[in-house]
């Protein structure tokens, strides 16, 4: 088994384990999102889970701060803003430890690219760029396959949306990944949530005395 196949296999296994752990630990809180979380460089991965009860807790916490109370005013508006902010979920990193083996293999894949001798007169920048891009694409592909495996295993109910998420990510990209991983109804729900949050942002701007 080569390094990429080893990573793909471990990521799939870790994602299935994380999904089952999420149900065991947080199922009573009504899970609505299960995602693989990464960054723009795709050099780390772990499962992030969001629940309705956790969302309400964090929204109430934000509303205790005067600035957010002024901007959001109500619990419903606060929850609309925070629903698809994975880093605000109380359970965002709760499942991270289960990805240690997959992360170690991913680190080795990235190290293999970083170890190219850039001082070598035969070094080709395009080679590095191409391999970087291909590895990014491979990580996305492996993540989608792992999440599809969870979906096919029937671990969650139909109210859970699967996605590949990162901190600095536009709504179009989130909808793009969601469309590849969910049925049409889930994508419609996600789009409606984005529209509702945007509508609330418009009201805030109108109310802002500045």
TrEMBL record:
<dbReference type="InterPro" id="IPR025409">
    <property type="entry name" value="DUF4303"/>
</dbReference>
<dbReference type="Pfam" id="PF14136">
    <property type="entry name" value="DUF4303"/>
</dbReference>
<protein>
    <submittedName>
        <fullName>DUF4303 domain-containing protein</fullName>
    </submittedName>
</protein>
